[in-house]
Prior knowledge:
Blueprint: H1 2-32, H2 38-55, E1 58-64, E2 75-78, H3 84-92, E3 97-102, H4 109-115, E4 120-122, H5 127-142, E5 146-149, H6 169-177, E6 181-186, H7 189-192, E7 205-211, H8 225-245, H9 248-251
Parallel strand pairs: 1-7, 2-5, 2-6, 3-4, 3-5
Antiparallel strand pairs: 6-7
Helix pairs in contact: 1-2, 2-3, 6-8
Amino acid sequence: MKRFLKKVHLYYFLILLALTFIILYPLIYIFSRKPVNFKGMNSVRRAFSFVSTTLAGIFYRFTYEQEVDWTKTYIICGNHTSNLDITAVMLLAKKNMVFIGKEELLKNFITGIYFRTIDIPLNRESKMSAFRAFKKAEESINEGKHVVIFPEGMISGHYPPVLQLFKNGPFKLAIDRGVPILPITIQNNWELMWDDGARYGSMPGICDIYIHAPIETTGMLPADAEVLRDKVFAMMEQRFNNYRINDPEEIA
């Protein structure tokens, strides 16, 4: 019965997504024309994310290790277990941002609009694609925009999910540009909707997001990227695993 209800909720959620997108599409179309209205595109995406998840009974709770100075530019790194992670970051960050994501997102009708305009598609099998993507990310940082990267590069195929080893890219970029890394541990989005929900459905509830203290990279050398990567992975893995151990849903 629980699986059936989660499937029903998923269909309800997908209908909400479609209706919200249709209502907001005129604005998306206008803002996506050249020259692209970057702030407008992000504002509509944030509204789209907030309205659709709220109506579906999905809410976000942010816990901070320390107060974040949102006047600074960050490379935001989070673990990735659910499509809800995108909304979590959209609602968390307080200024313009770009996502770096897999090239396949260009084929999706909704995400494709963003990855053809303000976001950065990446083919991880192509060194040239990776080079172009990170050059664009550098330009975004120079313009004062947050860059959002999920360093696992994928949603874990293991259920319940475990953190996958992180790629070096985000940490090299942070050191090269001298900007801080903002690690965020997305603790339970997978319980509400794992991946796109196709296998287990979705359910209402509260997504718990933990925002670690920013890590400054000023003075670090390119050779420090792996050490920084491993440090961020360790803190996020510990937070993620501790949450699961103490989570009533997981214990049940």
